Amino acid sequence: MNKPPLQIAYITGRSFPGRADLSPVQSAFINRLAKPGRTLAQLNFPYFTGASDSTTFEAVGLFTASLNNSRDYLASRRPVFEKNYQMPVAGLLARAQHTVFLAGSCGLELFNNLNLPAALLKTTSVFAYGPVARKRPVCHHFLVQGDNDRISQIWFRNVDSKVRSGHMNYLVNPELLTLCEHFISSIESNQAMP
After folding, report:
1. DSSP codes joined into one string, the chain
2. Which residues lie below 8 Å from residue 7, measured CB to CB, with a gap of 6+?
3. Distance CA 70, CA 79 (A)
């Protein structure tokens, strides 16, 4: 079976633990990236629905979401994180010739702490917006930061591009969509994809 040339998937902290469904804003953004040869993952990290039978997004308050994302960030730094999630992510990566992760906020730290093997990193790229992480990833990547994102600015002083945004509104910013499309298109033109 031929693998699709490219897939796009989110990796972000989970505002609602145990759930992997995309928010309406995430769905709208990723759907704008649809083109022939691209597969769009319709679940967020860790790419399974978990204990919940529902696949309908449920919003949570900003304080609760921040607390849950902070827990994800800290938990990802423990060895059990890699043990629990490296294989599901490797399974996702096996579905396509190349995968682009849309890493929002602490999603970059989660990605880094998966410690994916070098062979998988060769077919993986990361487009990080509002990055919150201790370092850049060791694969092909592009970091975007809002000029008013005080949270991300604590973690990264030097990024690849700036946009007019705070930490919570990247995905509704047309500048981000343009940068993301350019990043993905450059991968498609540079990869040896049939």
Report:
1. -PPPSEEEEEEE--SSTT--BPPHHHHHHHHTT--TTEEE--B-TTSS-TT-S--S-----HHHHHHHHHHHHHHTTSHHHHHHHHHHHHHHHTTSSEEEEEEETTHHHHHHHT---HHHHTTEEEEEES--SSS--SSEEEEEEETT-HHHHHH-S--SEEES--TT-GGG-HHHHHHHHHHHHHHHHHS---
2. 38, 39, 40, 41, 92, 95, 96, 98, 99, 100
3. 17
pLDDT in tens, 140-190: 999 999 999 999 999 999 999 999 999 889 999 999 999 999 999 999 998
β partners of residue 6: 38, 98
pTM over 0.85: yes
Q: Of 183, 181, 146, 189, whose CA–CA distance to 164 is shortest?
A: 146
Phi then psi dihedrals of residue 21, to 5 deg: -75, 150
Q: What's the burial of 117, exposed, middle or buried (CB within 10 Å: 0-12/13-18/19+)?
A: exposed
Cβ contacts of 162-170, under 8 Å, gap ≥ 24:
165/130, 167/105, 167/130, 168/62, 170/104, 170/129, 170/130, 170/144, 170/146
